[in-house]
């Protein structure tokens, strides 16, 4: 488990380790014999990019039922049609969920409760905003809203569904897509409230907000995993690495550093979309109970970001959890989670 890998954390957060992950380690191929026949999976943000490619790879492993969870019906239908033409034997359907809306997330989970089976959930939808923007609903900064708050709500609500609807005695899988950019997050706030920092436009940057959102998400994974047995649901945090050929981060006007990364560096160091998506597949089709509450990448269990082993990081994790429970109190998250233990 990642909790036991503090000795490797500083290395994984180094530039050399990033290059090693991208050029040397890579992501191993899925072992022969792995099959998802008879299983049902949902993937958020799966009409393009890594989510779409992950869907392809799951279907190639004979997944029986795929749910494409997206916010746009037309784009979802287009993605589904492409996949149906390649995998005509699978059941593929589209369901709508707007990750910017708590009400939409709750409605989506209500729909999931009607499914006869659900074995795998991959929460892939995410964004990186070029300018500071607030959610219309919660008034929190948008990157943190989508990547952290909304993803956390969806994960909590899906836990009992996965427990109840898994089709076999094997544990279900819940993967919250991470990023090794969480290794480089710099937290400058206090232990009073995470929103003092996360919602402050004066100290905001696009990269910084993305890094913080993914740091908060892996901290959430660590806490969430305390409320569910890996015998029932395995919760992990797969890292696709830097990937070229996706639409991620291409919207809006970016800083010169970000433009350099997107236009020059990323095409050189970036993995293919196929390689990045394979990290998702590894996390839900290959990894077992040993990956519970863990950062998964390159086919291995990786350490948490270094800050999570330090007193300041442990204090931040507790503060973030308490703030999250208050933010999501309308959904009664603790009641749901205590019912999962």
TrEMBL record:
The lineage of its organism: Eukaryota, Fungi, Dikarya, Ascomycota, Pezizomycotina. This is Short-chain dehydrogenase reductase family. It comes from the Eukaryota. Pfam families: adh_short (PF00106). Keywords: Oxidoreductase. It comes from Fusarium agapanthi. The keyword Cytoplasm does not apply. One of its GO terms (molecular function) is oxidoreductase activity.
């Amino acid at each position: 488990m990642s909790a036991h890998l503090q000795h490797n954390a500083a290395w994984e957060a180094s530039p050399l380790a990033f290059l090693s992950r991208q050029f040397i380690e890579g992501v191993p191929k899925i072992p022969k014999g792995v099959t998802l026949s008879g299983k049902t999976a949902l993937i958020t943000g799966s009409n393009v990019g890594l989510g779409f490619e992950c869907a392809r790879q799951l279907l190639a492993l004979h997944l029986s039922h795929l749910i494409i969870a997206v916010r746009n019906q037309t784009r979802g239908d287009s993605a589904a049609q492409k996949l149906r033409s390649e995998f005509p034997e699978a059941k593929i359907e589209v369901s709508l969920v707007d990750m910017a809306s708590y009400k939409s997330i709750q409605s989506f989970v209500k729909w999931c409760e009607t499914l006869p089976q659900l074995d795998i959930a991959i929460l892939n939808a995410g964004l990186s905003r070029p300018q500071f923007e607030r959610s219309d609903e919660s008034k929190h900064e948008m990157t943190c809203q989508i990547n952290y708050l909304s993803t956390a709500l969806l994960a909590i609500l899906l836990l009992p569904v996965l427990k109840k609807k898994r089709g076999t005695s094997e544990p279900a899988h819940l993967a919250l897509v991470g990023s090794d950019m969480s290794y480089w997050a710099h937290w400058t706030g206090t232990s009073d409230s995470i929103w003092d920092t996360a919602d402050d436009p004066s100290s905001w940057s696009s990269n910084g907000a993305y890094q913080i959102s993914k740091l908060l998400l892996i901290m959430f994974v660590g806490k969430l995993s305390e409320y569910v047995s890996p015998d029932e649901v395995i919760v992990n945090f797969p890292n696709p690495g830097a990937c070229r050929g996706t639409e991620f981060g291409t919207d809006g006007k970016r800083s010169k550093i970000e433009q350099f990364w997107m236009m020059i560096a990323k095409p050189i160091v970036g993995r293919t979309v196929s390689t990045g998506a394979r990290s998702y597949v590894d996390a839900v089709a290959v990894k077992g109970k040993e990956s519970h509450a863990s950062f998964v990448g390159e086919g291995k269990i990786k350490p948490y970001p270094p800050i999570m082993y330090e007193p300041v990081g442990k204090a931040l994790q507790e503060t973030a959890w308490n703030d999250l429970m208050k933010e999501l109190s309308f959904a009664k998250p603790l009641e749901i989670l205590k019912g999962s233990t």
